[in-house]
């Protein structure tokens, strides 16, 4: 079997022209180098060098082999450097998932833009989905990290970090009296007692859906849930259609501005919407580590 040491030996002999100098360059004795060359020539069934008074001279077969040896070692060096650049985070791929509401927060698109500008050789792939889909893709190694609105139960080797919490607002169809005559000091939850709620429900039942329902129960009433949407954006679409109200993260109030009025909650009723970064604690490449570091900086600035 031909190995890299055979290629390096042929190159050294061809460039040094003598076995003695080639052996010294390779850091071995001359007899082992002679045996190595003889074994290689036997393996190939050809003579690579001719011996003459001034040393070693390549045969025509040897010149062809030398060219191939240079090409192989050059590609090997390029491959090694590519791998090192990936580990350093200078190249490679990074697959990021997000719920549609997550990207409404301006901090995340800005961070992604900065990452792409800082690491232009890292191919950044973005995938949108709901929390369940993104977590499944994360476990299947299709994603390196994901942004979700719902905390999840403990899963081995999956890290969940709170990035930020933002105020929630009440999304009300513009045709509703509540939108035309809102309380001056912000809405209390009890002001919504007679309204039809449209909520987003994750499969884990411990995210915004539970937060809103628990808050309403704490205010003294059971919310009348008219519809459950698979995503926050779907809930807003239903609100825009006049089917009811919803509570959503403040950053989503840019959507359906013509059909929806977004009303603040009173200070005493303040609810917040969390945003989590989830990732597996395996395959921690340089690019992934740097990306996580950037997101943690958002978290630090938000506090």
Automatic annotation (TrEMBL):
Q: Where does this protein have coiled-coil stretches?
A: none
Q: Which InterPro entries match?
A: BudR_PBP2, LysR_HTH_N, LysR_subst-bd, WH-like_DNA-bd_sf, WH_DNA-bd_sf
Domain called HTH lysR-type: residue spans: 2-59
Keyword DNA-binding part of the UniProt annotation: yes
GO CC term (a single one) = protein-DNA complex
Q: Which SUPFAM superfamilies does the UniProt record give?
A: Periplasmic binding protein-like II, Winged helix' DNA-binding domain
Name one molecular function that GO assigns to this entry.
DNA-binding transcription factor activity
The cross-references to PANTHER family, in alphabetical order and at most eight, read: SMALL NEUTRAL PROTEASE REGULATORY PROTEIN (PTHR30346:SF30), TRANSCRIPTIONAL DUAL REGULATOR HCAR-RELATED (PTHR30346)
The similarity comment for this entry is: Belongs to the LysR transcriptional regulatory family.
| Protein name, entry field | Putative transcriptional regulator
UniProt lineage = Bacteria, Pseudomonadati, Pseudomonadota, Alphaproteobacteria, Acetobacterales
């Amino acid at each position: 079997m031909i190995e890299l040491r055979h290629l390096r030996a042929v190159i050294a002999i061809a460039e040094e022209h003598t076995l003695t100098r080639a052996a010294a360059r390779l850091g071995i004795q001359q007899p082992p180098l002679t045996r190595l060359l003889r074994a290689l020539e036997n393996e190939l069934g050809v003579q690579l060098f001719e011996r003459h008074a001034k040393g070693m001279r390549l045969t025509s077969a040897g010149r062809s082999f030398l060219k191939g040896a240079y090409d192989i070692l050059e590609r090997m060096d390029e491959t090694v450097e590519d791998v090192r650049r990936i580990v350093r985070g200078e190249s490679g791929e990074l697959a990021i998932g997000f719920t549609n509401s997550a990207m409404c927060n301006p901090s995340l698109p800005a961070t992604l833009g900065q990452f792409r500008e800082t690491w232009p050789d890292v191919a950044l792939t973005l995938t949108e989905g709901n929390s369940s889909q993104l977590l499944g893709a994360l476990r299947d190694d299709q994603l390196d990290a994901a942004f979700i609105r719902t905390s999840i139960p403990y899963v081995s080797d999956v890290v969940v970090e709170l990035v930020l919490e933002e105020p929630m607002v009440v999304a009300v169809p513009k045709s509703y009296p509540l939108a035309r005559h809102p309380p001056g000091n912000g809405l209390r939850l009890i002001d919504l007692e007679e309204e039809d709620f449209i909520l987003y429900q994750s499969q884990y039942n411990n995210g915004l859906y539970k937060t809103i329902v628990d808050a309403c129960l704490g205010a003294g009433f059971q919310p009348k849930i008219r519809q459950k949407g698979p995503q926050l954006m779907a809930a807003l679409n239903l609100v825009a259609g006049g089917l009811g109200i919803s509570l959503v993260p403040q950053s989503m109030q840019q959507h359906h501005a013509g059909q929806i009025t977004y009303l603040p909650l009173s200070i005493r009723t303040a609810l917040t919407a969390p945003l989590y970064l989830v990732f597996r604690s395996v395959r921690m490449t340089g690019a992934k580590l740097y990306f996580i570091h950037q997101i943690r900086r958002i978290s630090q600035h938000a506090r």
